[in-house]
From TrEMBL:
SUPFAM superfamilies: ARM repeat. GO terms for cellular component: spliceosomal complex. The keyword Coiled coil applies. It is found in: Nucleus. Its main location: nucleus. It comes from Cryptococcus wingfieldii CBS 7118. Residues 77-90 have a biased composition (Gly residues). Residues 1-106, 227-247 are annotated as: Disordered. Residues 110-219 form the Beta-catenin-like protein 1 N-terminal domain. This is Beta-catenin-like protein 1. Keywords: Coiled coil, Nucleus, Phosphoprotein, Repeat. InterPro entries: ARM-like, ARM-type_fold, CTNNBL1, CTNNBL1_N. SMART domains: DUF1716.
């Protein structure tokens, strides 16, 4: 079990599991696309996209036939037989019913925009009892959809230069695609029918439609059908029946995704990224939906990252998108998808390296030396980029690229400026300096004058210039990364080298103040860890009392160890590792540390016991292959050897 590897990968972006939903206060333009008149058959739809010569839809104009006027005329005609009184009653009824005439006295008091919004929500409410609730209705709808697609293709082929000839069928196609959205109500019933009826190849083909508005409609349908929140209600409710239904829902989504992948979904999505013009609002939304589909796919099938990065150009598109000037939601979403891809292993990271991805991300981060992100969404973007850098640094080749791209200098500059990027820069340095491949960056860190700024943060003296202090990272996490950097410096800097001597001198100056700070961090970590250790001991006693065999207890040991690491053991191990090095290097530091430990009723044997547990949990995973595994194995062997020497020294004091 390689605990180092297990804990040195950054988490997925905070928003990775948070799907983008409709805004709390949607404007009318945003709501138009959700309006679906289920009373009208698809062939009679009048929602017609405006089409120019190249088939590009630029907007929609809706024409609605007013059936209420006809009903009032019929009532008036029927009432006329009753004489003047009946006719007068009809006129009075018309007068009160007409909300557009003198509405401020007799109508609902709503303007046209407010009425439109209410009508849309009314239609959405009625949609709960829409026509597609059983298989026969779905099959009729699918048959109609196929006829509409065929008609549109025929008209476009026959009159390619005359949009007026195919505009009606294009409007029908647009409306017909919207009718797929309610299918998420029952995936186990409806999704297999889509596959069986051969609809998936048709949808995939429409992704290459000449009118990009139609292609975007298809992307939106695929996004909704593959959303990981589909069937979430069953998961949340619990119970055997709900679990079975949730399982069937996942199977249905999986079947749908497999069929989409078999019909070139990935290539078609990426090709649409290239042909959409984000300067246009509709196309920008299309890019957003495409990125959402990739997020859905990666959430459902994480290993798909290898296929996506090897068979499409998405990785290059994402990197290029992050390099563009300015900031927008699509840029943030691109950073999120990139972070998800890089999490899925060495192969993806090495493909990223071939694109000079790390160097380009460092250039993206350069802007945050002097300024903070403009809002919470941009902060999320910045954190995603930092996470991408950290993930890539898990591979030894990327540590060298980080060094060659002057990443160390950039992080030191960010630490000096003390803005929101400062603590994220400390995290990056923790990853960059680890293991033997990080040794060159350790030397560079010292020569780039990183120690003064580093120890300012270590001592808790630095004042953050950022006005958004509530957006800073947690103090415990920051302290863990600071201790990690110190551990890497002591491991990688050669004995008696100028850089190592400068490091030791920092612990000696100011009356060993930094040794005292080290023991403060150690005590804080022990305090966080103590209650968890008590809980684990109680659980062990309970298991033994219930007759658990030794094998069952051993299986739980891994889980218990991980819990302790999260609770503070990782920080405690790092603090004791650094403390052991300091007392070994300097007799004055040893004397001072012994005095401080004795005041707490402890001695160096307490430190050595922590290091022994660390040594026993290093480098157990021997299954990986390749250069990365060899580098990690060499680093693990070196660390075990160092720990053995430190333990022997401490136990001899």
């Amino acid at each position: 079990m390689d605990i180092d590897k297990m804990f040195k990968l950054p988490k997925l972006p905070a928003s990775a599991g948070q799907k983008r939903k409709m805004p709390d206060n949607p404007n009318p333009e945003y709501l138009k696309k959700f309006k679906f008149d289920e009373a009208a058959p698809l062939s009679q739809a009048t929602d017609e996209p405006h089409v120019n010569g190249n088939g590009k839809g630029k907007g929609r104009q809706v024409t609605v036939q007013d059936e209420e006027m006809e009903e009032r005329e019929e009532r008036n005609a029927g009432g006329g037989g009753g004489g003047g009184g009946g006719g007068g009653g009809g006129e009075v009824e018309d007068f009160y019913d007409d909300a557009d005439d003198e509405g401020r006295f007799f109508g609902g008091g709503l303007n046209n925009e407010q009425e439109q919004i209410l009508n849309i929500f009314d239609a959405a409410g009625e949609g709960e009892d829409g026509p597609v609730l059983d298989l026969p209705a779905l099959r009729r709808q699918l048959g109609k959809f196929e006829r509409i697609v065929t008609k549109n293709a025929e008209q476009r082929g026959k009159y390619p230069d005359d949009p007026s000839k195919f505009i009606e069928s294009e409007a029908d196609l647009d409306t017909s695609l919207k009718s797929f959205l309610p299918l998420t109500q029952n995936p186990p019933l409806f999704y297999p029918e889509l596959v069986k009826a051969g609809i998936i190849p048709i949808l995939s083909g429409l992704l290459a439609h000449e009118n990009t508005d139609i292609a975007v409609d298809v992307v939106e349908v695929i996004r909704e059908l593959t959303d990981e929140d589909v069937g979430e209600e069953e998961d949340a409710e619990g119970g055997a029946e709900e679990e079975e239904r949730a399982s069937k829902t996942r199977m249905a989504i999986g079947q749908l995704i497999d069929e989409l992948l078999n019909n070139s979904l990935l290539d078609l999505l990426v090709s649409n990224l290239s042909r959409l013009n984000e300067s246009e609002e509709s196309d920008s939304q299309g890019v957003f939906h495409i990125l959402a589909v990739f997020e859905n796919l990666l959430s459902f099938m994480p290993p798909l990252a290898s296929t996506i990065t090897s068979e499409t150009s998405l990785l290059g598109w994402l990197v290029s998108r992050l390099e563009k000037e300015g900031y927008d939601s699509n840029k943030q979403y691109a950073s999120e998808v990139l972070a998800m891809l890089l999490q899925e292993g060495r192969e993806v990271v090495l493909r990223f390296a071939k694109l000079d991805g790390l160097d380009k991300l460092l250039q993206v981060l350069f802007q945050y030396i002097k300024k903070d992100p403009g809002d919470g969404e941009e902060l999320e973007f910045m954190e995603n980029v930092f996470d991408c850098v950290c993930t890539s640094l898990a591979e030894p080749e990327m540590k060298q690229e980080f060094h060659d791209s002057e990443g160390v200098e950039l992080m030191v500059m960010m630490m000096k400026e003390k803005r929101l990027a400062r603590t994220r820069a400390i995290k990056v340095l923790d990853y960059a300096l680890q293991s033997p491949p990080g040794a060159p960056s350790c030397i560079r860190f010292i020569t780039a004058s990183g120690l003064p700024t580093f120890f300012s943060a270590f001592m808790g003296k630095s004042t953050n210039k950022s006005k958004n202090r509530h957006l800073q990272t947690s103090q415990v996490e920051d302290e863990e990364h600071l201790l990690g950097i110190l551990g890497s410096l002591f491991t990688n800097l050669e004995s008696d080298s100028p850089e190592r001597i400068r490091l030791i001198a920092k612990f000696v100056e100011e009356g060993y103040a930094k040794v005292e700070r080290l023991l403060e961090l150690r005590e804080a970590a022990e305090s966080r860890l103590a209650p968890v250790k008590r809980d684990i001991e109680d659980e062990k006693k309970t298991l033994k009392a219930e007759g658990a065999v030794e094998e069952e207890i051993e299986e739980m040991e891994v889980e218990w160890y991980l819990r302790k690491m999260d609770a503070g053991l990782a920080s405690l191990q790092n603090a004791d590792y650094v403390l052991a090095w300091v007392v070994m290097e300097d007799d004055g530091a040893m004397t001072h540390a012994r005095l401080l430990l004795s005041r707490k009723g402890m001695n160096f044997k307490n430190v050595s016991s922590v290091l022994r547990e660390l040594k026993d949990n290093i480098g157990d995973d021997e299954e990986e292959e390749g250069e990365a595994a060899e580098g990690e194995a060499g680093g693990a062997a070196l660390q075990r050897m160092i720990l053995e020497q430190l333990i022997a020294f401490l136990e001899g004091l």
